[in-house]
Design a protein that fits this description.
By secondary structure, the chain is mostly helical. It has 4 helices and no strands. It has one domain. It is elongated, with a radius of gyration of 23 Å.
Length: 82
């Protein structure tokens, strides 16, 4: 389900956006949605962290490492810092 958002902008900027959107075969709503989605994706740290953990997990798994191996390494590192 989608919801509606009303924004205010300079009429000249709106016209420029409409022209650019038409040139790409889109409408202004599609352009604004895409810009907002990109902004949120680039600035949402939780998504970045989730993606980072996913990549780390895949790399460890490809090297044959298990959760127990990770837990052991964390425990040893914490001990060494004391």
């Amino acid at each position: 389900m989608t919801t509606q958002m009303i924004i205010r902008m300079d009429p000249e900027l709106k016209d420029k956006l409409a022209r650019l959107a038409r040139a790409e075969g889109k409408n202004t709503s599609e352009m604004v949605r895409k810009l907002i989605e990109d902004y949120v994706r680039e600035h949402d740290i939780s998504s970045y962290v989730d993606d980072l953990w996913e990549r780390i997990g895949r790399k460890l798994k490809s090297k044959g490492k298990t959760l127990d191996d990770v837990a052991k390494a964390v425990k040893e590192t914490r001990k060494a810092k004391r």
